[in-house]
Design goal:
About 40% of the residues lie in helices and about 0% in strands. It has about 180 residues and is mostly helical. Among the domains are: about 1-40, no CATH class; about 50-110, no CATH class.
Length: about 180
């Protein structure tokens, strides 16, 4: 497959980006597999799946509402079998209600809002296989690395030693005047 932007021959079909220009190649394989047309898929409204977040909220609400059914049922069973429902009934009521509330909070905070996809994968584009003895075309990937050795290290030049200006203008002038004066001793 060739990159539609720069014309670079790609090494394999599973590459997601062009090795030369970085063009995303995900959609190119689907267009090639569909014969040049953009594939469109629509799910019927009755076949839509719920997102994990919606499922979690529904499960939590169902768990909270099940408290209404299970607490009286547990009370009847414990009275008939054990004779004392003092500990089991409040424990069941609290655990079911709080469990449902925690499930709703977890779903709202942690789960994804996008439903899982039911689309079957499109058949991938498979180029004709290369012969076993045929070499792959040259220049299909990045150019080979250059083997130029780095130049030797040299210490950094101390720019303060290159030029030392005179400490002041008057000092330089004073030295010139001293040269003109004859020495008398």
């Amino acid at each position: 497959m060739y990159c539609p932007q720069c014309g670079q021959l790609q090494v394999s079909d599973i590459t997601r980006f062009c090795s030369r220009c970085g063009f995303p190649l995900d959609g190119v394989t689907t267009v090639l597999a569909a014969g040049g047309a953009l594939p469109t898929r629509h799910l019927p409204p009755a076949n839509r799946r719920l997102s994990p977040r919606s499922k979690g909220v529904r499960q939590g609400a169902l768990l909270m509402l099940s408290t209404i059914l299970f607490v009286p049922l547990i009370a009847v069973i414990t009275v008939t079998m054990l004779g004392s429902p003092e500990i089991f009934v409040p424990l069941a009521a609290i655990s079911l209600f709080v469990g449902g509330l925690l499930r709703i909070i977890y779903a709202l905070l942690m789960e994804d809002t996008v439903p899982p996809s039911e689309l079957e994968p499109l058949p991938g584009y498979t180029p004709p296989p290369l012969s076993q003895f045929e070499r792959s075309p040259q220049g299909t990937a990045l150019p080979p690395a250059t083997a130029n050795p780095a130049p030797g290290w040299r210490p950094r030049t101390n720019t303060a030693e290159i030029y030392q200006p005179p400490p002041s203008i008057t000092e330089g002038t004073t030295r010139l005047l001293k040269k003109d004066e004859p020495e008398t001793h």
